[in-house]
Specification:
Elements: H1 2-8, H2 16-40, H3 45-54, H4 72-85, H5 87-100, H6 102-106, H7 109-122, E1 126-129, E2 137-141, E3 145-152, E4 163-170, E5 176-182, E6 188-190, E7 207-215, E8 222-223, E9 226-227, H8 236-265, H9 284-315, H10 324-356, H11 368-377, H12 383-396
Parallel strand pairs: 1-4, 2-4
Antiparallel strand pairs: 2-3, 3-7, 4-5, 6-7, 8-9
Helix pairs in contact: 1-3, 2-3, 2-4, 4-5, 4-8, 4-9, 5-8, 8-9, 8-10, 8-11, 9-10, 10-11, 10-12
Length: about 400
């Protein structure tokens, strides 16, 4: 995989269209071995190296440090394209983009400049240990230094990351502190216990934080040990919820493409219907089925693109200008997009078996990977709550209060 990447990626695209095409090329490389790699369930060092060699890791990085200087609207399209080749790697890339943006979300101007130069110039890859359902990491204040301790059940990116975003609470307070630290250090111990139904190559297992030391100067958004709050700080959740939505969408697109390909090459017409056809492409129920799924997918794509356009405009605007209402309007649109993609994606990943036929259930075909990947990550937070957010917005004109999941 790496040798192929090195031969192909000797330059960097100069346009948005070029970066999306680059993502498609990466997806094509990943797709060739996606099923075998999923079953092997090995740490995706080579896959992350491919993301680095292709330039996708620094897509959002400033141009002055060697990044592409692209927008989140482009990043969402890139995540989707990569996920068409491999859902796990699409997730890893999407989480990387979110954590690479963490300094912009909550940091001071000086911290933003330092982090963006660090990760862009070195092509560093991000992971994160910020699972809100676990107990918070406990932070001890030792004067000029903060010390993080505790355990998190999930740490997506873990062993393949260069930098990790930590979040914890100052001991004896309710003050949350984010910090970016080197991933490979003795005080961070990865559990190697990620062995789930789907998204198997995301390195999302547990992590023990045993005394990670961070200077107060690196506490994101703090000046003289006081946090400087902005509504913009709360965009982390809608931003990553649309990350989820886009790699779900990429998986759904790949599932439909796989079904169409198999049907056109292998599915046979049913010979006992009374109106027998010569090929599967003439079967009414197959044409009806694919037409229904394609129409639903196109509609979901349009909604996701609209949401991506809206939040990208907010993310790249003046941080101090964002209002709570603007934030809420964007979050609701993303909630609507996410629920649509989950419903449509799971329907495609299930019904595709009905349209391809019994032989397509062979393990050698591997159509199960799409359902497994979608079903696994779409359980991240209950989709019913996303529907409720949209319902409150439509019926009562209310926008969701910012939380760890809204």
């Amino acid at each position: 995989m790496t040798a192929t990447a090195q031969r192909r990626f000797t330059d960097r695209p100069e346009t948005t269209r070029g970066w999306i095409q680059r993502a498609r090329e990466v997806a094509g490389i990943l797709a060739e071995t996606a099923l075998a790699r999923d079953r092997a369930n090995e740490t995706p060092h080579e896959e992350v190296r491919l993301l680095k060699e292709s330039g996708l890791v620094t897509l959002l990085g400033p141009r002055e440090h060697g990044g592409a200087g692209e927008t989140w609207q482009t990043a969402y399209r890139v995540i989707r394209e990569v996920a068409r080749g491999d859902g796990s790697i699409g997730q890893l890339l999407g989480y990387h983009y979110l954590w690479a943006w963490a300094a912009r979300l909550v940091g001071t101007p000086e911290q933003i400049a330092e982090v963006e130069q660090l990760y862009t110039g070195n092509e560093f890859f991000f992971g994160g240990a910020v699972n809100p359902r676990d107990n918070d990491l406990v932070i001890t204040d030792e004067g000029d230094t903060l010390v993080y301790r505790g355990r998190k059940s999930f740490s997506t990116g873990s062993k393949v990351s260069d930098l990790t975003v930590l979040e914890g609470v100052l001991e004896g307070t309710d003050t949350h502190v984010f910090a970016i630290v080197p991933s490979q250090q003795e005080a961070i111990v990865y559990g190697d216990d990620w062995d789930n139904l789907g998204q198997r190559l995301t390195e999302s297992g547990s992590v023990e934080i045993n005394g990670v030391r961070v200077p107060w100067a690196a506490a994101a958004g703090f000046v003289n040990k006081e946090f400087q709050p902005l509504t913009y700080n709360t965009l982390n959740v809608p931003t990553i919820q649309l990350v989820f939505t886009n790699f779900y969408l990429g998986i759904a697109q790949a599932a439909l493409e796989a079904g169409l390909s198999y049907t056109s090459r292998h599915t046979r017409a049913w010979p006992y219907g009374g109106d027998n056809k010569d090929s599967a492409g003439e079967e009414f129920y197959i044409l009806d089925g694919y037409g229904d799924l394609q129409a639903k997918l196109w509609a979901a794509e349009a909604l996701v693109d609209k949401a991506g356009e809206e939040i990208s405009a907010v993310l790249h605007a003046d941080r101090e200008a964002l209002t709570e209402r603007q934030r809420g309007d964007v979050a609701v649109r993303i909630a609507a997009a996410k629920q649509r993609v989950i419903d449509v994606g799971l329907e495609i990943a299930t019904r595709v078996f009905e349209l391809t036929g019994a032989r397509a259930s062979s393990n050698s075909v591997g159509l199960d990977i799409y359902w497994r990947n979608l079903r696994t990550h779409s359980l991240h937070d209950p989709v019913a709550y996303k529907r409720t957010e949209v319902g409150r917005y439509a019926l009562l004109g209310e926008v969701p209060e910012p939380t760890w999941y809204t």
